[in-house]
Design brief:
Helix content is 71%, strand content 0%. By secondary structure, the chain is an all-alpha fold. α2 packs across α3.
Length: 96
């Protein structure tokens, strides 16, 4: 195959605000050094505490939009009202 190149992207987990996957060295440190594990756990708990309000906002937003049938019903009703004027020129002229 010609013209095909592998795309290799590297990213920093902190820049993307994602969870960093521990390397083999970090896994070994976590299992061997209890103070390192304690420090890492406290950092994780602090980050969880900071992101908790945003997560609650997202959950509330999701719960408010859970009833998709009624939202769809309201949207269709608004389309019917707008659809009463089939040609936009007639609607504009009647409003003037």
């Amino acid at each position: 195959m010609s013209g095909v190149r592998r795309k290799n992207e590297e990213y920093d987990a902190e820049d993307n605000e994602t969870v960093a996957i521990p390397t083999d060295d970090e896994k070994a440190k976590l299992s061997a050094n209890p103070f390192y594990k304690l420090e890492r756990d406290s950092e994780d708990q602090e980050k969880a505490r900071q992101t908790q309000p945003r997560l609650h906002q997202l959950i509330e937003l999701q719960d408010s939009r859970k009833d998709t049938f009624s939202l769809s019903q309201q949207l269709r009703a608004s389309f019917r009202v707008r659809g009463a004027c089939h040609q936009p020129l007639e609607c504009q002229q009647s409003q003037i």
